Amino acid sequence: MPALTDIAAVKALLARHDFHFSKAMGQNFLINPSVCPRMAEACGASVGSGVLEIGPGIGVLTEQLALRAAKVAAVELDSRLFPVLEETLSPYGNVTIIPGDVMKLDLPLLLQEQFGNMPVSVCANLPYYITSPIVMKLLESRLPVESITVMVQKEAAQRLCARPGTREAGAVTLAVQYYAEAQILFSVSRGSFLPAPNVDSAVIRLTIRREPPCAARNEAFLFRLIRAGFEQRRKTLPNSLGAAGLEKARILEALRETGLSETARAEELTLPQFAALANRLEK
Ligand code: SAM
User: Fold this and answer.
1) How far does the centroid of ligand 1 lie from the alpha carbon of residue 77, in Å?
2) pLDDT score of 1
3) pLDDT of amino acid 245
4) Distance in Å from the first CA to the final CA of the chain
5) Are 4 and 60 in contact (CB under 8 A)?
6) pTM of the model
7) Who lines ligand 1 at CB under 6 A?
8) Cα-to-centroid distance, 171 and ligand 1 (Å)
9) How does DSSP assign 127-189, residue by residue?
10) Which secondary structure element, helix H or strand E, spans residue 71, and what is its range?
C-alpha cells in the first residue's frame, strides 16, 4: 500500500471512496511524512503500552502508533471514514476503531474495556473546532493515562502551555496546569496538511500530575472563580468576580487576607494564588 502521506495516493484513495473533506468536522489530514513518526515517538508508544487516538482520519498517525504500541483504540466521528480505515489499517491487527463522538463517550469505561490494566497514553491530531473542550474532557475525566500528546493550532498551543501569571495565559491555561505539566514539543507548518488550514500548528505534551500543584478545598468553585476572572480579564478582580455575583466587600477582604493587591487582574495570578483566594472566599 502506498504511504498515507503520498498526496497523489491519498487523493486517489479518497476519490475511490467518494470522500469529501468536512470543514465542520475539522478534517485536515497530515501529509508531511516526518510528523506522525515524531508524534508516535513523543507519546511514548511502546510494545507494552496502549494508545488512545481521537480522530484517526484515514489512519496516517494510527499506522505509526500501531507500529509501536501493543494496542491502539481510535475514536472517529465520521462514519464515511470507516471503509477507508478498514482498507488502510488492514495490515494492523492491533487497532480498534471506535465509532462515536469523543465528547459523548464514557472515556474511563472505554479505556478499561480496551486496555484493562495496560499503561495508556493519548495521541491525536485534534479537530480544531473543539480542541479545548476535548483537552478539558480528557483532563477532567481523570483518565488513568500518563500523558496526552496532541496537535493543536499554534495559538491554542501557546495558550494551553502559557506560564500562569503572563499575558498569554487564559482560564484554560490554569485549568490545564491543575491537572498536568504542559509543554510545546514542536511546530508544524500549515503546508503539512491536506487541505492546508489557514494557521500553523504545534504538537504539545501534557504530562499528567499525580497530585494537583495546589490545595483547593472545592475544585468546582476554584474553576468557577478562574473562569469569572478571565471572562473580563481587563477588569480588576473585585470587578470581574463582582460581575460574576460575588460580594465585592468579601472579595476585597479575601484579596487582603491572601496578600494580593486589590487591583490585581486574573492574568497576573498563579494557580496557587487563585486557589488561596478560592479557599478564602469559600469560607
Ligand atoms: N488523524 C488524522 C490526521 O492526522 O491526518 C485526522 C486528523 S483531523 C485534524 C481530525 C479528525 O477528527 C477527523 O478524522 C474528524 O473526522 C475527527 N473528528 C472530528 N470531530 C470528532 C469528534 N467529536 N469525535 C471524534 N472524532 C472527531
Assistant:
1) 7
2) 67
3) 83
4) 64
5) yes
6) 0.94
7) 25-30, 54-57, 60-61, 75-78, 81, 101-103, 125, 127
8) 25
9) -GGGHHHHHHHHHHTT-SEEEEEEEEEHHHHHHHTPPTTSTT--HHHHHHHHHEEEEEEEEE-
10) strand 71-76
C-alpha cell at 251: 472579595
Ligand 1 atom closest to Cα of residue 31? 5
pLDDT in tens, 147-192: 999 999 999 999 999 988 788 899 999 999 999 999 999 999 999 9
**All residues at 6 or more sequence positions from 79 whose CB lies less than 8 Å from its CB, including other chains:** 99
Give me 263's grid cell.
487591583
Exposed e or buried b per residue across 69-97, where buried means at least 16 C-beta atoms within 10 angstroms of its C-beta: bbbbbbbbbbeebeebbeebbeeeeebeb
Pocket test residue of 29, 79, 199 for ligand 1, highest count of atoms within 8 A of CB: 29
Task: Report the pLDDT value the prediction gives residue 282, as an integer from 0 to 100.
Answer: 84
- CA atoms of 233 and 267, how far apart (whole Å): 7
Sequence letter at residue 184 = I
Grid cell 455575583 in the structure block, residue: 245
d(CA 39, CA 31): 13
The letter for the amino acid at 238 is: P
The number of helices, as runs of H, and strands, as runs of E, in the chain is 12, 9
CA dist 5 and 179 (Å) reads 34
Nearest CA to ligand 1 atom 12: 55
Alpha-carbon dihedral sign for residues 191, 196, 198, 202? negative
> Which ligand 1 atom sits nearest the alpha carbon of residue 22?
16
Question: Which set of grid coordinates corresponds to residue 140?
Answer: 477532567
Low-confidence ranges of the chain (pLDDT < 50): none
